[in-house]
Amino acid sequence: MTSEIATLSGVVSTVRDDIDTGGDRAMTAAPAFERSTWDELVQVWEHLDLPNRAWRAEIIEESIVMTPPPGHGHNLIANQVHRALSREIPDEWAIFQTSGVAIPLRSSLFIPDVVVIPLDVMPTDDDPTPIAAGQALLAVEITSKSNAERDRKTKLWNYAHAGVPLYLLIDRFAADGPSVLLYSEPLDGRYRRLHRVPFGDPIELPEPFDFTLETKEF
User: Fold this and answer.
1) Who has the most CB within 10 Å: 1, 2, 10, 100?
2) CA–CA separation, 4 vs 38, rounded Å?
3) Phi first, then psi: what are they for 158, rounded to 5°?
4) Residue 163 Cα to chain centre, angstroms
5) 211: enclosing H helix or E strand
6) Alpha carbon of 123 to those of 49, 100, 127, 128, 135: distances in Å?
7) Strand partners, 213
8) Residues 179-210 as b or e (16 or more Cβ within 10 Å = b)
9) Distances (CA, A) of 87 to 61, 80, 155, 184, 214
10) Over the stretch 36-72, which tens digit does the pLDDT of each residue have?
């Protein structure tokens, strides 16, 4: 189930989409108001009352989208990627699974499934400013059935515009079989390189990582 607060044409709408339960799609609209600025969207995002702490809220091109906790398969892959990275990266970099990265140019703020960020660009607890996505060295997204197209298209487009140097898409539900796709060399809002392997084959992460990620257990 996905709940969404969308800011479209000056109207705040609440959308409930019971994709995984076969429910009907229903929408209710609150009174109209002027279109939100980026700062206002971030402020709303910061003060959301989520159903519980395991839910995830993101700003996706002017919409605030709330997603329930992922399943066990998704979490196991995230754990494997996290553990592999922790064995390879220097102490000056951090690995997060709950950190928001902002792309104001696209009115978006994502919480990647895994993200690597240098510690020296991390804001302090007293600084509410979200981390700029372009500060990340690597963003990883793992598809779920209900939002796979968002990871394949919307987030791909946004990460490229933000200049995230490496975007690793772990697509469990690809039409031609589960795959791992590594996008690199962002330029003018597009990634110029794509390397794809099926689950089970290793994939090379280039500089500044320069190591092989095994996918046998995915």
Assistant:
1) 100
2) 17
3) -70, -45
4) 14
5) strand 211-213
6) 23, 12, 6, 8, 11
7) 203
8) bbbbbbebeeeebeeeeeeebeeebebeeebe
9) 35, 11, 27, 22, 13
10) 799 999 999 988 888 787 899 999 999 999 999 999 9
